[in-house]
């Protein structure tokens, strides 16, 4: 009997028989500009793919985009399902396993986040060097083999991180580095929580990415991740925080973020 992700892979191969992607990308809010850099694109709505989520958040289109960025073949997940939508920490398991089965060895993650560092204001880009799983939820719960004990040291691949920094330096694109803290959401954090997160060593806070990183590392994929800073976290600015504000701020740096991401993906190919 075929698994759900095998069924999705079969459908992708019917729609794009020549596709041989090596890099998978998950686009969070504000990163949709990357799709403008994909050449010879085949677009497959999630609705056609067994086990793929329905897009439930504005700013997430819900389609798989297959094509090339430079010489690199890519599979771009334009939109993710968040754990806060239905409480399912495995919401992105099938899409990631499908892309890994198609040949993807690298996962490039993106998200929108709030900053805990006054030097990293709205519109900034941050390379994720590590994360804090504050929710302490794992998509590996329920597995029974020893493979569930995944080593999360260097979860964000050091070589890929250094490559991303080199790309940013060459293009003179400011790229901060920091620790991303995952909150379950969907409510935004309180000022007291933000003060606690700063003491824990977090530089940015958001509601995604960590479950996908755990799944990718379990599947043997290398991971590199980026945050687009859309606001200062609660209590650090008089600005009222809302999802509409997040999308507005993300739209202002959409082109810069998309270009940096495309250049990083080309660097992976090199």
Describe, in plain words, how this protein is organized in 3D.
This protein is an alpha/beta fold and 270 residues long. The protein has a single domain (4-269), classed as Rossmann fold (3-Layer(aba) Sandwich). Helices cover 31% and strands 24% of the residues. The chain contains eight helices and nine strands. Strands 5-8-7-6-9 form a five-stranded mixed barrel. α1 packs across α3 (93-102) and α4 crosses α8. The longest helix has 16 residues, at 254-269. The chain is globular, with a radius of gyration of 17 Å. The model has no long low-confidence stretch (mean pLDDT 91).
Characterize the biggest β-sheet: 5 strands, mixed, barrel
Strand fraction equals: 15-25%
Q: Quick one: how many beta strands?
A: 9
The CATH topology annotation reads as Rossmann fold
CATH superfamily: Nucleoside phosphorylase domain
Oligomeric assembly? single chain
Task: Return the structural class.
Answer: alpha/beta
Task: Please state the second-level CATH architecture.
Answer: 3-Layer(aba) Sandwich
How much helix is in the residues?
Answer: 25-40%
Distance between the termini: 39 Å
Q: Order of helices and strands, N to C? A: HEEEEHHEEHEHEHEHH
């Amino acid at each position: 009997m075929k698994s759900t992700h095998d069924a999705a892979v079969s459908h992708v191969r019917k729609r794009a028989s020549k596709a041989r992607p090596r890099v998978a990308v998950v686009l969070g809010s504000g990163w949709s500009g990357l799709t403008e850099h994909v050449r010879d694109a085949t677009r497959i709505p999630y609705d056609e793919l067994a086990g793929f989520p329905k897009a439930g958040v504005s700013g997430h289109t819900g389609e798989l985009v297959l094509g090339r960025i430079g010489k690199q073949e890519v599979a771009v997940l334009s939109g993710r399902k968040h754990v806060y939508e239905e409480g399912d920490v495995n919401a992105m398991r099938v899409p990631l396993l499908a892309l890994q089965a198609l040949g993807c060895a690298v996962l490039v993650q993106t998200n929108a986040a709030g900053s805990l560092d006054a030097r990293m204001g709205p519109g900034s880009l941050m390379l994720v060097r590590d994360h804090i799983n504050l929710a302490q939820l794992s998509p590996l719960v329920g597995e029974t083999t020893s493979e569930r004990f995944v080593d999360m040291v260097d979860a964000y691949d050091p070589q890929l991180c250094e490559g991303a920094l080199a790309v940013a330096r060459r293009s003179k694109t400011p790229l901060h580095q920091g620790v991303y803290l995952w909150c379950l959401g969907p409510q935004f954090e309180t000022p007291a929580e933000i003060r606690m997160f700063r003491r824990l060593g977090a530089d940015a806070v958001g509601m995604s990415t960590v479950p996908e990183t755990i799944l990718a590392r379990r599947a043997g994929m290398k991971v590199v991740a980026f945050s687009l800073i859309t606001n200062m976290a609660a209590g650090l600015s008089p600005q009222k925080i809302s999802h509409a504000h997040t999308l507005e701020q993300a739209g202002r740096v959409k082109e810069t973020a998309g270009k940096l991401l495309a250049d990083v993906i080309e660097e992976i190919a090199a």
